[in-house]
Amino acid sequence: MFNKLSLKIGFLFFIFILIIETFLYFVLYTNLANEQIEEVMDNLLARGNTHSAVLEENFNQTTLEHVAIMESESDFAVVITDVSGDVIVHSDPIEQEMIDVIAHTDYKQMPDEGKVLEERWPEKKYIATDSPITINEEHQGHVFMFADTNNIRRIVDHLSDQFIVVGLITIILTIITVFILSRLITKPLLKMKEATEQLSKGRHKVELHTDRRDELGELAASITTLSDDLERLKNERNEFLASISHELRTPLTYLKGYADIISRGDISGNERNEYIEIIREETEQLVVLVKNLFELAKMDQNRFIINKENVVFGNLIHTITERIRPALEEKNITFSVRCPSHINAHIDPERIQQVLLNILDNAKKHTSQGKRISLEVSQNKRDIITMISDEGEGIPEEDLPYIFERLYRVEKSRSRLSGGTGLGLAIAKEIVEFHGGTIKVRSKLGEGTSFIMTLQRGDSHE
Ligand SMILES: Nc1ncnc2c1ncn2[C@@H]1O[C@H](COP(=O)(O)OP(=O)(O)OP(=O)(O)O)[C@@H](O)[C@H]1O
Ligand SMILES: [Mg+2]
């Protein structure tokens, strides 16, 4: 369970905290140790000063010996010299180091309040102070105090021991905290990893708790959305495949049926020609269906190429209307076109033509004789808006949300007269969206339908 990420996070946390703690402890330790050492030095000097004060009152042999006896019972040693540095009394045996200190002292420079002579406790056996005995503003002698540096070492060692114990406790607490913290972060991550593994294995419904309000919660929410999307896509794909097989089965049944009849040979030449014509039509429709499906597949794989160029939109509209007009006139449909001449667009003219022809073709299919179809182009600051309206049968409200879906037809039966492939609007929508535009529909049953295509303006676009 102790995975790489929690290890990494934990390790980093730990190192950082350790560095900070070490620094803080070092500062604290140094300050505390220095304070304690200073206190020992001050105490020693104060003790020497007390002796010298007593001696300043009574500078005689009795008092001197009294001081020496007092210190012989204590942890300290006292050496009292006369003004020239010759030893008068001492409490403990005099060692070479003491003699060195006394010999190296500049008596004349000694301030009345005394001073610390030796403070290098890590190297020396004794620390030392000197408190001059000043009578009538003249130095009469010196009280040298010595303290064994082992005492200081003991204090410092004791402090070190305490710090080691506290340090160890801190490290253990840090490790525990880091462990819990990194688990807190990595546990949901692990869950998410498992969830995504499940996703890639094809189990598209994952349950993640997304009640966290932080980035991890957001990630979990995204993964849940992803799984929902995948689930939806899977269903869509299944439905799509089902529709395609249905779409293919019908014409193929026709083809086989008519081919069978023809091959039986017991039909007239006229019938035969009629059936061959049906077979031809069905095959053509199949070819269109497959071509359209292939086109959509390319769009899905983003292998669909749009060759944008600067186009005078009016010219494009003119070409399109001239192409569709004969078919509309044949059906006795009035066709009105309004398009300002100065509109420029940056589009793939072939593709947009395909879109508009499909919408017009739909309008033609669903508008009865004598009615009217209009095409109007306008532009605002950002967009070119093309609206194609018909006075046809309209689209039922419940079908409106789906008409851009693949293979969706309002008229479900696939009659050869009205039946398109149901892919035209799906392709149109993809093309327009590839252009960064939108396509919308408004329709009222029995009154007519309008398709509104919005494209970004050419000049502002480039
Ligand atoms: N102007 C319209 N009036 C009424 N219904 C429409 C209109 N345009 C589209 N529809 C409905 O929307 C459905 C989808 O249109 P779409 O163009 O995608 O498919 P199609 O025309 O049936 O087939 P294809 O365009 O692939 O030959 C149509 O089958 C039709 O029912
Ligand atoms: Mg169509």
TrEMBL record:
Record's keyword terms, sorted: ATP-binding, Cell membrane, Coiled coil, Kinase, Membrane, Nucleotide-binding, Phosphoprotein, Transferase, Transmembrane, Transmembrane helix, Two-component regulatory system
Domain HAMP intervals: 183-235
Xref: InterPro entries: HAMP_dom, HATPase_C_sf, HATPase_dom, His_kinase_dom, HisK_dim/P_dom, HisK_dim/P_sf, HssS/ArlS-like, Sig_transdc_His_kin-like_C
Ranges where the Histidine kinase domain occurs: 243-459
Parts of the chain that traverse the membrane: 7-28, 163-185
Primary location class: membrane
Name of the top EC class for this enzyme: transferase
Localization in the cell: Cell membrane
Coiled-coil zones: 216-243
Organism: Oceanobacillus kimchii
Pfam families: HAMP, HATPase_c, HisKA
Reactions that this protein is recorded to catalyse: ATP + protein L-histidine = ADP + protein N-phospho-L-histidine
EC code: 2.7.13.3
Designated name of the protein: histidine kinase
PANTHER family registered for this protein in UniProt: SENSOR HISTIDINE KINASE CPXA
Membrane topology, from the record: Multi-pass membrane protein
GO MF entries: kinase activity
